[in-house]
Design brief:
This protein is an alpha+beta fold. The chain is 39% helix and 18% strand.
Length: 171
């Protein structure tokens, strides 16, 4: 029991280091825990512990730390169509000036699920999930295009979603 606590404390210390840019540096055990949860977000801590060689308590601590650090989230992923959201689109946004205020404003909109600043044809890409075409038009026309700094938008309406997965692992 004592050696398990020492190993757990030692492993916890190793997983808490940060890289030079301030992002957490994850050890092999933390990466294995993430992979276990990507396979099944409801997998019991005891089963994860058995798979990665830690106690249930140590896994619970690691998972909480990963959540607190923003390394991962545990969520229920739905099919938007089955819960009443019939229109999805990716919107490319071009901005005059600083991108951060526009990206922050987009991030605050409940219909916007994904915001990324890019290099290329668009300054920002935002994925939008709406109830229908009227709702999408309202979001783009009255809210996104009205943001200070937005120069232009281009919408890519989803016709059919062929693949959506969160199983990229930790490579």
């Amino acid at each position: 029991m004592h050696s398990e606590r020492v190993a757990s404390r030692s492993a916890e210390h190793r997983d808490s280091r940060e890289s030079r840019n301030g992002t957490p540096q994850l050890d092999a055990v933390s990466l294995a825990i993430i992979e276990q949860l990507q396979e099944d977000g409801r997998r019991p801590y005891a089963a994860i512990g058995k798979a990665v060689g830690l106690s249930e308590a140590a896994v619970r601590q690691r998972v909480q730390k990963l959540l607190d650090q923003g390394v991962m989230q545990i969520v229920a992923v739905t099919d938007p169509l089955t819960v009443g959201f019939r229109r999805q689109a990716m919107v490319g946004v071009n901005v005059d000036g600083d991108l951060d205020p526009v990206a922050d404003a987009l991030s605050g909109m409940p219909e916007v699920e994904y915001v990324v600043m890019t290099a290329g044809s668009f300054d920002i890409l935002a994925e939008i999930v709406c109830e229908d075409d009227d709702h999408l038009l309202d979001v783009i026309n009255k809210r996104i295009r009205a943001l200070p700094g937005v120069r232009s938008t281009e919408s890519f309406v989803y016709l059919k979603l062929k693949k959506q997965t969160y199983m990229w692992g930790t490579r």
